[in-house]
Amino acid sequence: MLGPVECRDGAGLPVRLGGPRHREVVARLLVARRRVVPVDRLVADLWEEPPPGATGAVRTFVAEVRRALEPGRRPRTPSRLLATEGLGYVLRPAPGAVDAWHFEAEVARAAGLAPADAAPVLDAALATCRGPAYADFPGARWAHAERARLAELRLHAVERRADALIRSGAPREAVWDLDAHVAEHPWREDGWHLLATALLRSGRQGDALGVLRRARRVLADQLGADPGPGLARLEREVLRQADHPDEAAPATGDEVWSSAAAAYEGSVPARSPARLEATASLLRELAVTGAGGLDAARRHRAAAVAAAERTGDAELAARVIGVYDVPAVWTRVDDPDAARTVVRAAERVLARLPEDAPETVRARLLASVAVESRGDALAEGALPRAADPPGRAREPWRRRAQQAAAEAESAARRLHDASLLAFALNGTFLQSFAHCGQAARRDATGAELVRLARTHGLLGPEVLGRLIRVQALAGLGDLPGADHQATAADHLADRYERPLARVFTTWYRALRTTLATPADLTATEAAEVTEAAYAEAVALLPTCGMPGFATGLPALTRLAPVVRAGALPAPEAFTEADWGPYDPWVRPLLLLGDARPDEAREALGTAPRPPHDLMAEPMWCLLARAAALAGDPVLAARAAAVLSPAEDQQAGAASGLLTFGPVAEYLAEAREAAGG
């Protein structure tokens, strides 16, 4: 779309769509961004005065485009790309398959990267622009708004690339493109500001002043306006430096960081305990910067904790462990070994703390235990079988984690410590999955976190609280409420550079699309809708830095429409699926789908109980259905008992990720199989 409209196959070879009208149909449907365009609208957009038979012509164009896009599709098989819905058509390519959508996604991704990493991303994105968007339809009214939007986005990308080059120490590279940029778009003050800044950072003070004066003349001549405050301030600064050349320009954030780090390095003795505390605090900030920062923080935290313990100072070790109050919204840890290491260290330090140690220090250790023990991260030995009756005495790790969460929250409320309470409430949330159907309780926790954070200016806890509410409200069926929380979380994430929050809201919006899908679709049609809805969300997983979250999810999204339709998974459709940690609960259904009931019953007999986390309800639903189909009344009865509190909810929606359909349907199957 970024230039003349063209299509290429998976090998990069051109696909002949047909004549100009065929390409215009494709372009018009892409502008709709996976929304249905009625035939009447297509007719009106393609012709100012539609000729007789225009509707039939559009249908012919669509049929020929379908054949071009999917040459191997069998006759009378529904199209996976260009579908008929109602009285119109919808085109559903993967997000990465459309250059305009990919360009937009890459520009957004670059906004969350460090300048040195953002510049090459923006370089690659700008290289995909072959000319004005929809260049072969310059007069089409339907393309006007989208063409203008993409043109603005391209100019924004040019300026952000220049800014990234300047900030990463390559201002001379930015000058070359910015000079042409301001010549072509003289009304863009950001372009003039960046060009002058790049020249100034390149040591060309006189040229920078000349550019600013040229900007003043151009803006006055062409727009009749004076430069804005930003340009005016920069001009005054350049003039001030010209009058006082020995005075340094105000330091940039990067320069302040380098100077402060050098001062710390030179002032704080090597092996000083202060270095350990500073390192732990830095790791906390590093963890929220994105996937790379999260992975690095995770790797270095265990080393910092071990070093703190080796000092023999229990309070120091407690502070190093407890300062890492990074918000955690997903209930499966990314590195169970690292989580176990931190918890064991926290338990040792708790036992060694002197009686007069500050209560906040002790409470932060308890909150750390609660957060790091989420799910079954601290399981001791094999989990109980799903068919076994409940018995908490056999799972002491859960009891210890829940007690730690309760004690941390109680201490925080007693001490009126807002930051500590936010940390403790994170632990309370992560330990609230002992039973299904607890979405309302978690929504209350999320709402308290949001109120607390807004009162005390706590950014991380507010993002956490809103994401918790997205999950809980989705589970309760309050989609407008979940939409509001997702939008608020996105705003905070964009404003304060918290890119990982977008991973969860993107997945929620895919779930939202699924929940809005008409119930009368066939399994094939539902699978097509689901695949299109989740394409963007799944694409985020390889680089999100959260393996505990990402592993197995793509396969579950493909399974979801199958089980929602009441069907069994076809073995050939899932031969290469990676189920990750969800394999024990998916396996019995896969065996039933492969007509192997005896093996399915055996798998049900050995399946562990699902973990106490956000995916517990959908996994119990899979067990309930498999038990009903395989004739296992004991497990069916157990699943029915576990799922009963969630009877009025959508299976899995409380995860904010996906749904297997109403829990009530699985309950009915399980109760019938159990004989009650």
From TrEMBL:
It comes from Streptomyces albidoflavus. InterPro entries: AfsR-DnrI-RedD_regulator, BTAD, OmpR/PhoB-type_DNA-bd, Sig_transdc_resp-reg_C-effctor, TPR-like_helical_dom_sf, WH-like_DNA-bd_sf. Belongs to the AfsR/DnrI/RedD regulatory family. It comes from the Bacteria. The keyword Transcription regulation applies. Coiled coil: none annotated. Residues 1-93 form the OmpR/PhoB-type domain. One of its GO terms (biological process) is phosphorelay signal transduction system. CDD domains: BTAD. This is SARP family transcriptional regulator. Residues 1-93 bind DNA. Keywords: DNA-binding, Transcription, Transcription regulation, Two-component regulatory system. GO terms for molecular function: DNA binding. Signal peptide: none annotated. The keyword Signal does not apply. It holds the Pfam family BTAD.
